[in-house]
Design brief:
Glycerol-3-phosphate (1)-acyltransferase; alpha/beta; 6 helices; seven-stranded mixed β-sheet
Length: 215
């Protein structure tokens, strides 16, 4: 029930603001499989659009600011996982909560850049938290390229602009048998897939640079 409510509410947002969303699936997802969805982050609307492609209820890892508003904050605190950046011991609690969500049968939604990218379309450098969780629990990662959300509602913008949205769900990347030593290669692979999706489906937005992992 929670999955369908979350899915329907996410679509309702786009219906209300009149923004069409096109979803491209390069490979179907297994309905019985949990995943960790990793997407580039350029807009306040990234969270609901990621929920529209999920195969089951998705628990998000998000900055603690999302837990502060009166109504939405209460929902976020009770359904998702706030990340209190800079707070000592927080990551241990995040990893524990993420593991508990996976044990309950949920998928996870993570923006591995760790913050909203102010210079799209090229994703910024990833943080390793999502990849560590994926390897610890042997859960496949689904890379997602959100092509042009910054055109609709970028960070700090006081209003929305009309622009059709495209979301590309790539084939899952298995983590079975991986260890923490494999994290750098896994991060690079996911980065290349997400950046490659932007270049393939929206070359007019793509900065003509080599898709190397930022250092």
């Amino acid at each position: 029930m929670a999955y369908y409510t979350h899915w329907a509410n996410s679509w309702l947002i786009y219906i209300l603001i009149g923004i069409p969303v096109k979803i491209v699936r390069t490979k179907p997802l297994c309905r019985t499989q949990q995943y960790i969805y990793c997407a580039n982050h350029t807009s306040y609307l990234d969270t609901p659009v990621l929920a529209t492609i999920a195969n089951r209820f998705m628990v998000f890892l998000g900055k603690d600011d999302l837990a502060k508003p009166p109504l939405f904050g209460w929902m976020f605190r009770n359904l998702h996982i706030p990340v209190y950046r800079g707070k000592r011991g927080n990551w241990e609690l995040v990893f524990k909560a993420a593991g508990e969500a996976i044990l309950r049968g949920h998928s996870l939604g993570v923006f591995p850049e760790g913050t909203m990218n102010k210079k799209p379309p090229m994703p910024a450098r990833f943080k390793k938290g999502a990849f560590l969780i994926a390897i610890q629990h042997q859960v496949p990662i689904v890379p997602v390229s959100i092509i042009n959300h910054w055109k609709v509602w970028p960070k700090l913008a006081p209003y929305l602009c009309w622009c059709p949205v495209m979301v590309v769900q790539h084939a899952p990347i298995e983590t079975k048998g991986m260890t923490e030593a494999d994290i750098p290669l896994l991060m690079e692979k996911v980065y290349q897939v997400i950046a490659g999706g932007i270049e393939t489906y929206a070359p007019e937005y793509f900065i003509a640079e080599k898709k190397s992992y930022p250092v």
